[in-house]
Design a protein that fits this description.
Blueprint: H1 13-16, H2 20-23, H3 28-38, E1 43-47, E2 60-64, H4 68-71, E3 98-102, H5 111-121, E4 126-131, H6 146-155, H7 159-166, E5 170-174, E6 177-178, H8 199-203, H9 213-229, H10 231-236, E7 244-245, E8 249-254
Parallel strand pairs: 1-2, 1-3, 3-4
Antiparallel strand pairs: 4-8, 5-8, 6-7
Helix pairs in contact: 5-7
Length: 259
């Protein structure tokens, strides 16, 4: 579906996306893994590009983003994004050396159609940053906001469906999340739970937009109480000194077309 600002998918970024760029900055360590997966590609398609996180600056990137509120948050150093949806990419076959999609496939209305389009227009690797729906609920936030993580798990497609949609072999690479991760998705705050008391930080994680305000308030109040009492630290305090966290975040790297 299309929302008022052109967002195509289940989240309305016209409503929730205005401060997205402030909290969802690309983390350089995750960016380095994406860059390595793209290989020597000179031309790259970024699908569901949002505000431009993780776009390489040393290659010719074409960005596609249907949400107007996200397109206007792209920094001046990046080329403007094309208003289009993944399921109908306005490019010819084999137009790009590689393609990428970061934190976006769970927004698509037609997963198989979008993946087929990415594969159609891309000669080489397709690189997708996403989460494993079967590992999402292992995060400590499940103690406080299980509906938020259940929403995430329902939205993220299983990796088998992604491989089937691309039609080429897919390598699964676990992405270590650094303690000071600049990209503010839920697991990025594994050792900084106080960040999830910030309404704007939560809203930059779209799954929070699917629960009611009363539910979110109760979850946040429970977390705040446990932080005040020390109960959170008694259970999870070692995470505050853990340099990396292996959660549900993965890179899926599809090889280029045969022949």
């Amino acid at each position: 579906m299309r929302h008022g600002d052109g967002s195509a998918g289940d989240a309305d970024y016209g409503r929730i996306g205005h401060s997205y760029g402030a909290y969802r900055q690309p983390d350089p360590r995750i960016a380095a893994m994406i860059e390595a997966a793209l290989g020597p590609a000179e031309t790259v398609l970024n699908v569901g590009a949002g505000a431009g996180s993780y776009e390489p600056t040393d290659r010719r990137v074409t960005a596609v983003e249907p949400s107007a509120s996200m397109r206007v948050q792209r920094p001046p150093r990046l080329a403007p994004a094309i208003d289009a949806v993944t399921e109908r990419l306005p490019f010819g076959d084999d137009s790009f050396d590689a393609a990428m999609a970061t934190f976006t496939i769970h927004q698509w209305t037609d997963l198989a159609g979008g993946l087929g389009e990415m594969r159609r227009v891309t000669r080489g690797p397709v690189v997708i940053l996403t989460c494993d729906p079967f590992e999402v609920a292992a995060f400590w936030l499940n103690d406080y906001a299980p509906e938020v993580l259940a929403t995430e798990a329902r939205r993220y497609p299983p990796f088998e469906a992604i491989a089937e949609g691309l039609g080429t072999p897919v390598e699964r690479v676990a992405v270590p999340i650094p303690f000071d991760c600049r990209d503010g998705f839920n697991e990025a705050y594994y050792g900084r739970p106080e960040m999830l008391l910030d309404p704007a930080a939560r809203l930059a994680c779209s799954a929070w937009s699917f629960v009611t305000a009363d539910y979110a308030a109760a979850a946040v109040a429970a977390l705040a109480a446990d932080l005040d009492s020390g109960a959170w630290d008694a259970r999870y305090g070692t995470l505050r000194t853990q340099p990396h966290y292996l959660g549900s975040l993965y890179l899926l790297v599809s090889s280029g077309k045969a022949g």
